[in-house]
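Here is one chain, start to finish.
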Amino acid sequence: MATAAPILGETQKQREMEYGKGMQGEKEEMVTPGEVLGKASELKPGKGAYVAPYRNTDILYVYSSLTGFRRSLSPSPDSPEQRPTVEVVGHKAHGAVPEPGSVVLARVTKVMAKMASADIMCVGSKSVREKFTGIIRQQDVRATEIDKVDMHLSFRPGDIVKALVLSIGDARAYYLSTAKNELGVVSADSTAGATMVPISWTEMQCPLTGQIEQRKVAKVGS
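Its structure:
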């Protein structure tokens, strides 16, 4: 019995090493943003991956946040976290990638009755190299009186907005929110072509003509 423990220990290490080799040797597969990588109870999200509930359930899954190759990394034998780490590595060099929870700067491209679309330009302080589309839905413009939100009085094409990434939508677009004081329009040009000055939470003024235009304004200095 005295020699059993070392033998079992060696056997366990051998199994872990073989398991690690198997994970590292796993064939890489191409995945796209929003694609399910596995259950969060079985996998730990790494680079290019995030955790979110599956549809309208309480079950957490790991999703891909970019286009690239899926790769699994086994934990070290002495790590308390024994879930493999799954990550997505881009097939080419890329800039910053939006992920749920990221704060982004985006340029509004189109405003409709129920939503506005925008091109994401920066994630935090880092610029993006690929095209990422953001969608601000009517219910995500502000936190109060959601049913009274008028999209055309909140944003206009060309506005620069600071927004929070909520999730990846079905059409490979990112759902964005401006429902916090520090989020919303940070820069906008008036109809006269001048950069407007915010004068309230809902108004910006043209310094040339004095004309006031309505917007969902981000808190100054945020």
